[in-house]
Amino acid sequence: MQRLRLATIVAEEPEIFHSLQGEGISLGRPSVFVRLSGCNLACHWCDTPYTWFFDGHPGAHRGDRQYERRSNSVTLDVGDIAARIRAFDCHHIVFTGGEPLLQQPALAGLCALLGPDYHIEIESNGTVALTPGFASHVDQLNLSPKLGHSGNTDTARLNRDALAIHARDPRAWFKFVIADPDDAEEVAALAERFAIAAERIILMPEGTTPADLRARSAWLAPLCLDRGWRFTDRLHIHLYGDTRGT
Ligand SMILES: Nc1nc2[nH]cc(C(=O)O)c2c(=O)[nH]1
Ligand code: SF4
Ligand SMILES: [Mg+2]
What we know:
Blueprint: E1 3-10, E2 13-14, E3 16-20, E4 30-35, H1 69-72, E5 73-77, H2 78-86, E6 92-96, H3 104-114, E7 119-124, H4 132-135, E8 140-143, H5 154-157, H6 160-167, E9 172-178, H7 183-194, E10 201-205, H8 210-227, E11 230-231, H9 235-240
Parallel strand pairs: 4-6, 6-7, 7-8, 8-9, 9-10, 10-11
Antiparallel strand pairs: 1-2, 1-5, 3-4
Helix pairs in contact: 2-3
The structure holds ligand 2KA, iron/sulfur cluster and magnesium ion.
Ligand 2KA binds at residues 19-23, 33, 96, 123, 236, 246.
């Protein structure tokens, strides 16, 4: 049986939850979220450091703590995960993380168990290409390539080959986390370099409090209008705050 490493809500309890999609092109859609543990990047403002910033991790994060791996992750059989997903009366799934595409073989096994009646969305940092075995299960890619302000090296945050493949994929949307108005120039350069249509570009304010989101939205909304890009808020932060399992 294949297994997936998931994040936890509290120790031993996997982070599988029913909520409204809070970001991007499916904002507002009831979905079952499955949060995978582990990430290949280390964004200093990451809102889910408990998926990767474990004790001993050499990276940096703006928070003041590291996380114990044992109480913040749990490994489950895909059969167990499928049963937990089926318990919700909802056929839209969002695999998020961490970086879910680091565990594609078991994700493919999970999707095969669930069958064709589920709509599968992926939240990914865009550094990993889909494998042939998993690609056929995916309906929508919500990609968040990271900009310089994330604190990752350029080579870590931008995998040219993966991004070029994603840019040609009609299932892909590009959701950029924006902290400063100047970040728009980096987005424009990536859009040009990878031929990403304006229609596919969505800017989202960085922030884990309603006040921070509102402050950045005040200049980000007109910036999007000016550039012809989409804007997304972070609905779940307004509804539930920065909490696990929401
Ligand atoms: N409601 C809700 N919507 C989300 N969209 C993307 C999320 C993520 O953490 O990737 C997320 C999340 O954590 N909660
Ligand atoms: S890529 Fe996503 S999960 Fe990974 S560190 Fe950055 S924000 Fe966090
Ligand atoms: Mg989140």
